[in-house]
Amino acid sequence: MWLLKALAALLTAAACTAIALRYLHMLQLESYQLPGYRRYLGSHPTMRHGTPLLAGVILTAACLALSFLLTAIWRGPARLVAAHAVAIAGMAVYVWLFEKARRATKEKKPFVFTPRMRRLTAACAAIAFVCALILVLIGVPPYILLAAVPWLPMAGAAAMAPWEKRVNDGFFRDAQATLAARPDLIRVGITGSFGKTSTKVVLASILSEKYCVLASPASFNTPMGLTRVIREQLEPRHEVFIAEMGARHRGDIHELTELVHPQFGLLTSVGAQHLETFGDMETIARTKYELVEGLEEGGAAFFVSDGGIVDSLYAKADCEKTLVWKEGEAHGCWAKDIESGPSGSRFTLVLDGRELPVTTSLLGLHNIKNICLACALAHRLGLTDTEIMRGVSRLRPVEHRLQLLPAAGGIAVIDDAFNANPVGAAEALRVLSTFPGRHIVVTPGFVEEGRMEETMNRELGEQIARTCHIAILVGVKHAAPIADGARRAGMPEDAIRLVPSLSEAQKVLGEIGRPGDTVLFENDLPDNYTEA
Predict the structure, then answer these.
(1) Does residue 155 register a pLDDT over 70?
(2) Domain 403-522 is classified in which CATH homologous superfamily?
(3) Residue 408: which residues within 8 A CB-CB, separation 6 or more?
(4) What is the pLDDT of residue 145?
(5) How many CB atoms neighbour CB 464 within 10 A?
């Protein structure tokens, strides 16, 4: 009898752990941050990829009903054996169906079984087994634990938090020591609501005309991401280290400056990004300014003028500082005589009073701002005018950021699928309008913008109506405000297509696209986003 009970607890724990892998993946996509994972659970109460709550209730009810039924027929252990056997069989079928549905879903970012994830999975399995064993011992069918599967990763993460903090702190200190041993290394931090990655790539390319540069790859902009870059990629030959610094909560940038100790800081923008976690624009501004506050003594800060929040932060700074993109600013950097089109841009770069004619294949006004910001620091670091102009001319589009892809079937594609913001989306639509032929946009709109999201998406719809001939909107429920804004701005109903997924959008595009069209893919859904 004891063996049967232990086996029931063990199998229940195994089933819970197998199902929990889906939710552990979501926790991984949230960078193991429990607040973000709780928001995911709160916004997806039906658990689109499975309903453990319903399954747990049904299995428990079936087990109890069978127990009562068999009591009238059999005596002794036969009743319990039969009840457990049926419940275990039902649980196995459920796990199989759940896994089948999970594997059929195309994940944007695959589940990675890292050492940390292995530790977390083991913790979840141990917690599930202990809970199942307790339920068995007090006479409650353990299969009810299936109802708690979505919360199992939270319990595992909480249990492992002290150990993970100890591991991460060790890596963090090691990275700090690595940088401290390189007093000759020029350290640059870049932050902003948008434009960080593009500016980082532009700056690295231009500085490479004079220096050996290491820039954090892709969007490695978290403490552990940068720690890994420093420990694994920084070499003695590198003369400049450029660290992109991302933030979703107050204090995130401060933590990154404690790691990098930058001598130079670039602030690209302050805008409505991640309002769901920041709450308001004032908190966003304070968080971005943490980079300026964290500069080494004698450091210098560079700001892109926006006529508003960024200018006020520039005025507040008491270190060496430069304001970019404000015409007439002493010792500043801006662009004039701008000519842009489908093939790129040419303009006059005004740098510290000198005028430099430059050309670039990058699309969009915001990329010219990024170039000006990078050139201002390049000049501060001693690059000549010739090196700066040559560096700008060699720039290539950043992947998924207004990237013009080779035309297929006569249809031009502008890939701007990286995280969108209102300023960038408006510029992307403006760039689209410079192309000949019909203009088609494929977008889910803005996501993770809290209370402002619906308003922002409705305004996006109005902009789309003024620029595009056809709008393919991803997310039938989520994109409804975009469609509403487009209708209000006069876009015909038959020009608005609401589809549930990107694959469906591509299918519609294949049906309606024709040679001469230009398609803009604007924004992409977060890796952990599903429409409840």
Answers:
(1) yes
(2) Mur ligase, C-terminal domain (3.90.190.20)
(3) none
(4) 80
(5) 29
Is a pLDDT exceeding 60 seen at residue 437?
A: yes
pLDDT in the model for residue 451: 73
Q: Return the SS3 of 43.
A: helix
HEC secondary structure over 436-462 = CCCEEEEECCCCCCHHHHHHHHHHHHH
Per-residue pLDDT tens over the stretch 6-28:
777 888 888 888 888 888 988 88
**pLDDT for 46:** 46
Domain extents in the chain:
2-163, 183-393, 403-522
Q: Which two tokens mark 470?
A: 């056809």
Structure tokens at 106: 């195309």
Q: How many CB atoms lie within 10 A of CB 258?
A: 12
Closest CA to 278 of 268, 291, 287, 269: 287
Question: Which alpha helices (DSSP H) does 451-501 contain, by range?
Answer: 453-467, 480-488
CA dihedral 433, 434, 438, 444 (to 10 degrees): -40
Predicted confidence at residue 293, as pLDDT, reads: 95
Q: 176: how many CB neighbours lie within 10 A of its CB? A: 16
Q: What is the rounded distance in angstroms from the CA atom of residue 67 to the CA atom of residue 283?
A: 57
Alpha carbons 123 and 153: distance in angstroms, whole number: 9
Is 183-393 assigned to CATH 3.40.1190.10? yes
The per-residue DSSP string of 94-131 comes to HHHHHHHHHHHS--SS-----HHHHHHHHHHHHHHHHH
Task: Please give the Cα distance from 325 to 155 (Å, whole number).
Answer: 49
Distance CA 247, CA 33 (A): 13
Between helices 152-180 and 252-260, what is the axis angle to 10°?
30
Q: With contact defined as beta carbons under 8 Å apart, do 271 and 194 qualify?
A: yes
Say how far apart CA 386 and CA 403 lie, in whole Å.
26
**What is the rounded distance in angstroms from the CA atom of residue 363 to the CA atom of residue 434?**
11
State both tokens at 163: 């150990």
> Encoding tokens for residue 244?
């992109």
How far apart (Å, rounded) are the C-alpha atoms in residues 196 and 389?
21
pLDDT band at 419 (very low <50, low <70, confident <90, very high): low
Report the candidate in 214, 228, 222, 230 with the shortest Cα–Cα distance to residue 256.
222
Using the predicted structure, report yes or no on whether residue 233 has a pLDDT greater than 90: yes
The string of DSSP letters for 225-263 reads HHHHHHHHH--TT--EEEEE---SSTTHHHHHHHHH--S
In contact, 271 and 345? CB cutoff 8 Å: no
